[in-house]
UniProtKB/TrEMBL annotation:
Presence of the UniProt keyword Hydrolase in the record: yes
InterPro entries per the UniProt record, alphabetical: CDP-alcohol_PTase-I, HAD-like_sf, HAD-SF_hydro_IIA, HAD-SF_hydro_IIA_CECR5, HAD_sf
Organism listed in the record: Trametes coccinea (strain BRFM310) (Pycnoporus coccineus)
Higher taxonomy: Eukaryota, Fungi, Dikarya, Basidiomycota, Agaricomycotina
GO cellular component: mitochondrion
KW Metal-binding (keyword) present: no
Region Disordered, residue ranges: 224-245
Protein name: HAD hydrolase
Keywords of the record: Hydrolase
Top-level taxon in the UniProt lineage: Eukaryota
GO biological process, one term: glycerophospholipid biosynthetic process
Gene3D superfamilies: HAD superfamily/HAD-like
GO molecular function: hydrolase activity
Length: 398
């Protein structure tokens, strides 16, 4: 049936009016319900950083609008709590919060941030007094982060190179790198574990040193023992100690990676290789040398350990805001750009997940490998969609 354009416009206007009226009623009913209950809002957020809020050094414009909404400019009219959960890192949480607060234009608290290595705070008690290697980032920044967590004997691969340049003859320490090193005699310092905190800057040096530590049972420069993996190791008993050898040799050296991302989104058109790519490169070299890959512990999204850790950080934050125990957690919405880490992890944690198109995920490549609850253009649309979804739910349940 032909409808003159004037009629069409009137109908559209009426429909718009009806929709905003419906939204208004929803809002009023919702606020009345929650005002009487004085509860936490029904939803809280966990945001990924790279590809959602930032692209390299640049703030994604939608991020500020989304954070404004969480700050109260939303149909619920209340502040909505959130934390940041990133596979990035390389600096302490305090330094990161300062930088993020200025990049995002809102005050971020250090207990609102979970970086790839933050979870190591929960395992440091096992290694506090033992010599460990910490890898990644610039110069000795991750050593300072590790010391801040409680690692008392944290060494870098630059320390190793300063000790014996022949460990890796293809890199000469820059004055800045040399200034960051600590004098250590690694022939007398059995390394018990290697922690890859952040993306290594010198893959070749770090690969060489990891191989040296693992194959010699912890003593860099010691003879290679090719320690069999734990499953094949016979329990050590005192008479197995080769005489004259240092205590601690022959032990399995723990290898811990904090971020499994093969790719991540910075300000370059194509995603960049991440710490996961370094892990794959190391394992390929190790396998070529020893015939098998080396067992390792993986933290970071999508691991269950990291999502459980993040959930605890979020609950502590809500209890701080609420000033008391939170009996029932609100719905946690995860907003991320990487299906492999953000969406897979959230789905594993039972959280609704929202995939945005501002980062690693490229719709041109087909459906994501892990199915999100919703796909949004950017973080602003993600926040708006989740709020309306929860308002709809609350209104129908009240
Ligand atoms: O190096 C960081 C990168 O792997 C991803 O960071 O914030 O997207 O988890 P993010
Ligand atoms: Mg990301």
């Amino acid at each position: 049936m032909f409808m003159p354009s004037a009629t069409l416009a009137t109908t559209a206007r009426r429909q718009l009016q009806a929709a905003s009226h419906a939204r208004h009623c929803l809002r009023t009913r919702w606020i009345q319900h929650h005002a009487s209950q004085r509860k936490l809002p029904p939803l809280v957020f966990t945001f990924d950083i790279d590809g959602v809020l930032l692209r390299g050094p640049h703030t994604i414009p939608a991020a500020r609008r989304a954070l404004d909404m969480l700050n109260g400019a939303n149909p619920m009219g209340v502040k909505i709590p959130f934390i940041l959960l990133t596979n990035g890192g390389g600096v302490g949480e305090e330094a990161r919060r300062h930088k993020l607060s200025s990049q995002l234009g809102v005050e971020i608290h250090s207990n609102q941030i979970v970086q790839a290595h933050t979870i190591l705070k929960s395992v440091v008690h096992k290694y506090a007094d033992k010599p460990v290697l910490v890898l990644g980032g610039r110069n000795d920044v991750v050593r300072k982060v590790a010391e801040g967590y409680g690692f008392k004997k944290a060494y870098t691969t630059l320390d190793v190179l300063a000790w014996k340049p022949e460990v890796w003859p293809f890199h000469q320490l820059t004055p800045e790198e040399r200034a960051s090193t600590k004098p250590v005699d690694f022939s007398q310092t059995p390394i018990s574990a290697i922690f890859v905190f952040h993306d290594p800057r010198n893959w070749a040096l770090d690969t060489q040193v990891i191989v040296d530590v693992i194959r010699s049972g912890g003593i860099i420069g010691g003879s290679y023992l090719d320690t069999p993996p734990p499953s094949e190791q016979q329990p050590l008993s005192h008479h197995h100690q080769p005489s004259g050898e240092l205590e601690g040799k022959n032990k399995h050296v723990e290898l811990v990676f904090c971020n499994p991302d093969l790719l991540w989104k910075s300000d370059f058109p194509q995603p960049r290789l991440g710490q996961g790519a370094f892990r794959e490169a190391f394992q390929a070299v190790y396998k070529a040398l020893v015939g098998k890959t080396y067992p390792y512990i993986q933290y970071g999204k999508p691991t269950t350990a990291t999502y459980k850790f993040a959930e605890k950080v979020l609950k502590d934050r809500l209890e701080e805001l609420q000033g008391g125990r939170v009996e029932q957690m609100p719905t946690v919405y995860m907003v991320g750009d990487n299906p492999e880490s953000d969406i897979a992890g959230a789905n594993g944690a039972g959280w609704p997940s929202i995939l945005v198109r501002t980062g690693v995920y490229d719709p041109a490549g087909g459906p994501p490998a892990h199915t999100p609850t919703y796909i949004a253009e950017d973080v602003e649309e993600a926040v708006r969609w989740a709020i309306e979804r929860e308002m709809g739910r609350t209104a129908t349940s009240s």
